[in-house]
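May I ask for whichever protein you like with its backbone structure tokens?
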Amino acid sequence: MSIDPPPLPRPPVVPHAAAGAMPGPATRRDAWQLAALLALLALLAAVSLARPLLPIDETRYASVAWEMWARGDFLVPYRNGEPYHHKPPLLFWLMHAGWAVFGVNEWWPRLISPLFAGGTLWLTHRLGLRLWPQQPGVARHAPYLLLSSLLFAYFATALMFDAMLSFFVALGLLGLVQAWQQRGVRGFVCLGLGLGGALYAKGPVALLHLLPAALAAPWWASAQPPPWRRWVAGVALALLGGAALILAWAIPAAIAGGPEYRNAIFWGQTAGRMASSFAHRAPWWFYLAWLPLMLLPWLLWPRLWRGLGPARRDGVLAEPGSRLMLCVAGSALLAFSLISGKRWHYLLPEFAAFALLAARMALAAPPRPLDRRLPAAGLVLAGIAFALAAPRLRGMAGGAAWASIAAGGALAAIGLLLLGRWRARDSGGDLRALAAAMVLAYAVGFGAADALLREPYDVARTAAQLARYEAEDRPIGIVGDYHGQWHLAGRLRRPLHEVPHGGGAAWLAAHAQGRLIVVYKRDDELPADARVDFLQPRYRGSRLAIVAPS
């Protein structure tokens, strides 16, 4: 049974049930808008199903799940015969759950992220209703802003951990707001589930997305601050509950995985990675430089910046909801800027906070034609540039060239359609139209990228060849590190031998029946006195050969 939140000095709060209830016509309109939003997400998912899993990240995670499945070991993740300590097992378990129902396949893993992305859109809507019940446009429009942000649109369909993490962070934030508004235990239980799910999704670093906002409640909830001792006790219990959830797996896994694995999951993936990342090192200003592209088109949207002045004048930025979203996004941006390892998607869980804040800011400014015309003109120019430039890329096949021309024409057509005039039913009509246009443009762009990059990123032919070698009981090696690119596609059951650079000739001499994978740019990088048994002329900017002793 829902308990009404207490009234707040700014803004005045109506009962929560009433905040979500609207007259019949508005409710029907909201239902149509929700259906359109889910259709846009389904379109992105359909585009992702049409492409192969991409090396190295997507194929790596699929390979880990496959190796656990083939070994019958669902406690410790494995990659190429060794315990894999870089990620917790939730994503792999979800792949196993689908395989148990549908059989081993490559399409089910691709649906996991869209399902979590859909859940994040719903939770974003719920957060908007709770934080701004007097402004239903925030809850109505924020999911559109979120889905149409470039980075979220891409990772909503990628076989990675970030869409799942975004869902659990949004769930934890909803619990945080419930605990503040209702002053009961249910909110802290929801926060604990969000923390536990975030830990299972990405490991201890996930705490950076939730704990700062939980501890900063006296600031963002200053209009009606919660009792501090009771609040700290509730957050601590939620944290202990989330920790208990992850330790239920981590302790048995650490015992089974051995000392090296135990040290990696309890130390290497937390303090060690934050202080000195073993990969993806970048300067502190990395995120500040890339945010306009990551949040495309919204940081370049005139209406968002035009609403900043009225929002400051009318006290919008002092509202608890605005302060909470600023705290979530700002603390994560600061923390991840200080951590040595950086990748675009590390900030993806904060995109829901940005979408809610941007939707609230947009309501402070009336729409103008430039809000639609500027991004529409950008789409038209991008389409023309893509249609002219892409076919001139070196080595592009004729079919791919025509696909790029068609994609460029489609982008330009979307831009022209957006330029057209229509009478919006409400002030959010332009926002939703722009969001829909951007999602359509992303779908076209992702499809075109598949046409252009399918050959050098497709692992199916090489995986089939490796499966034949394994069936012939031949030893298989690879020069350099192996990231699991071919294990699921080829249903391989034995690990590949990792051969140091320069050691290929010696390995072939020691394995007369063996086959060695070499990724190279120059012919002199191939082992001496070896014959090429299989060749993939284009593989991730290089060539791939499988060689045998001559």
About this structure: The radius of gyration is 25 Å. The first strand starts at residue 78 and ends at 79. The first helix runs from residue 16 to 20. The CA atoms of residues 162 and 348 lie 7 Å apart.
